[in-house]
Amino acid sequence: MNDFERAITYLNDPFNWTRRNGILDLLAEHVAVSAVAVAAAMVIALPIGAALGSARRGSGVVVVVSNVSRAIPTLALLTLFAVSPIGFGNRATAIALAVFAIPPILTNTFVGFRGVDAEVREAARAMGMSRGQVLRRVDVPLAAPLVLTGIRTATVQVVATATLAALVGGGGLGRLINLGFGQRDYGVMIAGAILVAALALLTELALVVLSWAVTPGQRRLPFRRVPRTDAAVGRPEPTASGIPL
Amino acid sequence: MGAASDVVLAVDEAPNPWFDPSYVSDNWDTIVGHLREHVWLTVAAVAIGAAIALPLALLARRGRWLAGPVLALSTVVYTIPSLAMFAFVFPLTGLSATTVLVGLTAYSLVILVRNFLAGLQGVPADVREAARGMGMGPLQLFLRVDLPLALPAFMAGLRIATVSTVALTTVGVLVGHGGLGQLITGGLNANEYRAEIVTGAVGCVLLALVADLLLAGIERLLTPWARAARS
């Protein structure tokens, strides 16, 4: 029996799912930490991105934030927060993950709101809409596709990187990988890897469908993000799919 | 931090500074050893990734039927968490740097294939047609038309892939080959020795920065016409 078969056997045992600190508990912890991190990042990044984008200012800052964050290893930040006064545990994990979720949301929100045609906004004002109405009925719907892309990128990335918390004593499904590795029980390790990969892929899929459902206007599934040829070729795409994993 | 509280027990507050130059000088050889592995893994992963991504991108440009699956597959690979990726590779290659290299190559490959394809698709069709009309063969067409025109996109892809790979290499600590990441977990396991952790973390960021600047410099050298247009 090789490690992959052992992993399937492990996953087929219901007790491994339902017992205390079993798969379901770890999954719940994984999802909860991820949700807190994404929510925190949204609270911070959405208003700033929208404000900067509408004002068409601060593109330099946004680009620097997204580039610098790509260079910082998630493992480093997770470890640094864990040994800081924040201490080990899910709080440190959530804060570290939120830090990495901010750049994709910020960048995409910024680009989305900056892309709203000024003349459309002016026309809306001329039709008698208040500033609040312009924001709600013009800016937000037009920026929505990119904003949702940012949230999706950030969420998938958070779910994926939450795995790394296990390397610094945190919880979540990554624990199975780390435990299995430490105990030389490679079937458990592979089982953990399968679960984590499946969770990340399902998150991506669910959010693609969700953003398709709530996006106003033309309904285009973003599965095949075939690069547009008329885009400014040669520039690092401002909405680069975030930082890896 | 220690100064903030009034009553301090010597046992509790053994000095554990965030920055300690003496750590760096005392352990210089160890640090350089990890740095060397980090650089080696990054360069190899990006180089192998590029070597596979370029033919893939060239093939994918020929038809949408291939571009779709290539991009879909790259999205799937990109979504797999790095720790899971290393865990999947581990049964095949064991406790070696190869495990990390295979995982890193997979990520750099999917980043590069997207950017390479974007760059190739950005080459105007009429320019290629004109070149073909001038009698250029496929190789000449690639070297003298596609490559120069797509170079900025290629370099952008290489920069993103390199910086990402530098950060991702740290996850290789799972199998004991995480480059500077070894300092991060090493410090954590050595009773939370902060100086070591910070050295590893700062080292990673500096390495990414240096690599990015280096590639930016190469891009400038390779595209003299862009410089002329800018000034």
Sequence-ordered SSE layout with sheet pairings:
The complex is a heterodimer of chains A (245) and B (231).
Chain A: H1 3-12, H2 14-18, H3 23-55, H4 59-71, H5 74-83, H6 90-114, H7 118-126, H8 131-161, H9 174-182, H10 186-214
Helix pairs in contact in A: 1-10, 3-6, 3-8, 4-6, 5-6, 6-8, 7-8, 8-10, 9-10
Chain B: H1 21-26, H2 28-62, H3 64-79, H4 82-93, H5 97-121, H6 125-133, H7 138-169, H8 181-189, H9 194-222, H10 224-230
Subcellular location (chain B): Cell membrane; Membrane
GO biological process, one term (chain B): transmembrane transport
Keywords (chain B): Membrane, Transmembrane, Transmembrane helix, Transport
Radius of gyration of chain A: 21 Å
CATH topology of chain B: MetI-like fold
Q: First CA to last CA of chain A: what distance? A: 31 Å
Overall CATH class of chain B: Mainly Alpha
| Helix and strand element order of chain A | HHHHHHHHHH
Low-confidence stretches of chain B: none
Residue share in helices of chain A? Answer: over 70%
Shape call of chain A:
elongated
What is the CATH architecture term of chain B? Orthogonal Bundle
Structure description:
The complex is a heterodimer of chains A (about 240) and B (about 230). In chain A, helix 1 (about 5-10) crosses helix 10, helix 3 runs antiparallel to helix 8 (about 130-160) and helix 7 crosses helix 8 (about 130-160). Chain A has helices spanning about 5-10, 15-20, 25-55, 60-70, 75-85, 90-115, 120-125, 130-160, 175-180, 185-215. Helix content of chain A is about 70%, strand content about 0%. By secondary structure, chain A is mainly alpha-helical. The longest helix of chain A has about 35 residues, at about 25-55. Chain A has one domain (about 5-215): MetI-like fold, CATH 1.10.3720. Chain B has about 230 residues and is an all-alpha fold. Chain B has a single domain (about 15-220), classed as Orthogonal Bundle (MetI-like fold), CATH 1.10.3720.10. Chain B contains 10 helices and no strands. In chain B, helix 2 packs antiparallel against helix 3, helix 5 packs across helix 7 and helix 8 (about 180-190) packs antiparallel against helix 9 (about 195-220). The longest helix of chain B has about 35 residues, at about 30-60. The radius of gyration of chain B is 22 Å and the shape is elongated. The model of chain B has no long low-confidence stretch (mean pLDDT about 85). The interface between A and B is large, with 60 and 62 residues.
